[in-house]
Amino acid sequence: MDKIAWVRLSSTYLPLATPISDAKVLTGRQKPMTEIAMLFAEVQTADGHQGLGLSYSKRAGGPGQFAHAQEIAPALLGEDPSDIARLWNKLCWAGASVGRSGLSTQAIGAFDVALYDLKARRAGLPLAKLLGSYRE
Questions:
Q1: DSSP 49-60
Q2: What is the pLDDT of residues 85-123, one digit of tens each?
Q3: Residue 112's closest CA among 38, 43, 33, 46?
Q4: Are the C-beta atoms of residues 55 and 65 closer than 8 Å to each other?
Q5: Is 0.90 topped by the overall pTM?
Q6: Cα–Cα distance between 72 and 74 in angstroms, integer?
Q7: Closest C-alpha among 44, 17, 22, 41 to residue 32
Q8: Which class for 91: exposed (0-12), middle (13-18), buried (19 or more C-beta within 10 A)?
Q9: Helix, strand, or coil (residue 131)
Q10: Which residues of 45-82 are buried (b: 16+ CB within 10 A; e: fewer)?
Q11: Which terminal residue of the chain, N or C, has fewer Cβ atoms less than 10 Å from its own Cβ?
């Protein structure tokens, strides 16, 4: 059985060509959004299969999301990458003191997408097709 051999994380900021405003900006509570924090998770198995996942954070939380992902990533090592739902729960419990919403769930999302991407690549399918998309 193939096992997860390594996980690599990276974080970057995506600048927006045009700042985005919403109701909070109009009320003076926030400034227009000029960038989005992006979290990337790369997962590779012992057999060389890879998956890439991403998550994002608007306005605040990007550095916290990255730090949380770094803390929980080791929980994936040695695991079967096909057990996606079980691994989501394992990651959730690995960071239980942070909570089950917001920043922690967004961090887990990058791993979740990476594992589904890996599964699709192993099946020789686009991720959308693996998840059931179709067109007539």
A1: -EEEEEEEEESS
A2: 999 999 998 876 666 667 888 999 999 999 999 999 999
A3: 43
A4: yes
A5: no
A6: 6
A7: 22
A8: buried
A9: coil
A10: beeebebbbebebeeebbebbbebbeebbebbeebebe
A11: C
